[in-house]
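Quick bug: von Willebrand factor A domain-containing protein 5A output formatted oddly.
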Amino acid sequence: KRAVTMEQHCGLITGNKEPVPLKSISVTLSINDFVASVSATLNYENEEKVPLEAFFVFPMDEDSAVYSFEALVDGKKIVAELQEKMQAHSIYEDALSQGHQAYLLEEDDYSRDVFSCNVGNLQPGAKVAVTLRYVQELPLETDGALRYVLPAILNPRYQLSEPSAKSCVNIKTPKVPLEDLPYTLSMVATITSQHGIERVQSNCCLSPMQYLADDKTSAQISLAEGHKFDRDVELLIYYNEVHSPSVAVEMGMQDIKPDSLMGAPSAMVSFYPDVPEVETSKACGEFVFLMDRSGSMGFPMNNQNDSQLRIEAAKETLLLLLKSLPVGCYFNIYGFGSSYEKFFPESVRYTQETMEKAVERINYLKADLGGTEILKPLRKIYKARSIPGHPLQLFVFTDGEVSDTFTVINEVLFNSKKHRCFSFGIGEGASTSLIKGIARATGGTAEFITDKDRMQTKALGSLKFALNSSVDDISLSWDLPPGLTACMLSPEQTAIFRGQRLITYAQLTGTMPQEENSGEVCLKYTFNGRSLENRVTFSLQPKTNASFTIHRLAAKSLIQTKDLGFHETSERVKEDVVGISIQSGVLSSFTAFLAINKELNQPVQGPIAQREIPRPIISTSCRAHKVKHRFRKNVFMQLISRQKANGSWELDEDLAKILRTNLEDIMTANPVKDGDPSTWATVLAVLWLHANSEDLKCEWELLERKSVAWLHDHA
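Here's what came back:
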């Protein structure tokens, strides 16, 4: 009944121009090395003459460990308690009916990256500030940057199932044009690292960075005034030194059982395994590319004027990936929307003929297949017979607009032993829950792409991971003083790739040494039959931290492993997750934060008016898209498209035109007159890449390697 009322109200908000009770959002961000601590305050004011209940639905990164929620009313702080979700809903409704002010914060039942906040019984003229706090590990980009995103874009999500229609994304988010959005966003960020801060890049206007220390180990930046919710706020943080292995130990809470999750000291271990690079041109595998062709892929990558359409960027990326595949592997390409299509009835061997057929079809791909129905093609791929000696590597490109993400993640998890999945979230607002969830389930990698060049760089980086031999027999061993043991809290790592970071959490139980002492942790693994190890020594004098950051991140890691969504998790595991969630104070699918102000005891006059906080409409489909291709990038793509499956180029007029010369001059300059002209053509093409596209090297590195291998065999 409540959901129906809310759906009816959706149109009223924007139609009747009632005042929106949310006035501003202010964010304080503190980044220490690769961990972000965030405090976000929502400021409400009721300018109407009736009591209100305000709903606000907003996106969050799915790795956020939300551990605190409180309200400040007339100078009085009301701290929320974490409770089982159904119970919290019931108490919330009772509190409102008794005339109390009540506040509720919860994760969506169908996706871990959508949250809703209810502010109930906001009296006429009343002001209230609600604050939520969370901590999060920051992902490491291939160029060494750490990436923090404050999501602002919440796209509509396609419903995979009847129940997911009840997702709060589909019910509680009225839309208004961007210029009519009545609330503002401000953000101040403080960054600290012993490595020294080199620079911070952003897709938004920032104030100039101010160093707070002479050695540049601390700095502050802020979002320029007037930020509209037309894009996610992304920060890329570069430190002066390469990241190095570390172990941080944090004291547990004093007043609870010393051997419990929050009572015992917790350790956070970060390794950067030194995985050797191997020759990839002779690699094998079955490479399946699953490309989103839903209507929303016809939108731009982001909201800047010259932004390329998502589907066009995806097509160029697919072409580069195809050209970079090793000879002798197998491949297939699926497009999906409300239905799905595949290029070949089953995966085919990679030859000149099959590659040409695929390239031709890529050119005609459009965002014309309707909704985002990803389950059917996934199931089809998993049911296909496997090819002996060619392990399945799945590349998923999607804007992630699916409401029931847990169903998809569980399907991938069920088939995780037979493949690795590399996922790419395309455009702003892609579901972090879906993209990270399917990669995590299979030991693959997840990437988020909001502009075309980075899509190609990241996709080729992931292909390099997929082509590299995987690291096996991964184990962590601890050398600790007598009486102290380490109990792992993170799931076992099944795959490590070159250039990746490995983070694990452990609980230290037993007796901590009284005097200064140290421990050692050793990461062991085998690679191509060789045994390798990385060691790091650390101090056993745990630091105290009022926010218990490491404990909260460890709890989040545990919850993510067990919590498969409100409708997909067994009752026994639900109880386990609720226990971990309530003990650690970290929100889950099955718990909610609830705060009640019992001092407000005025009986409510008539029904409380419900107000959904609107989100902006990003007018993507009606804007003119003037795609500004740089000339050189165009020439680069023309050259790549003419490369053959074996890595060579043919010597012809088309190649001469691309190299801005004529065929006669090229043939005259050929030092081997009676040899295969393809050899000379390939040498010139490779030289052109080095001379003219050095900044795009990460995009052509694999296909160039194939060319050089071909030259070694033929020249």
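Actually, after a second look the formatting is fine. The mean pLDDT is 84. Closing.
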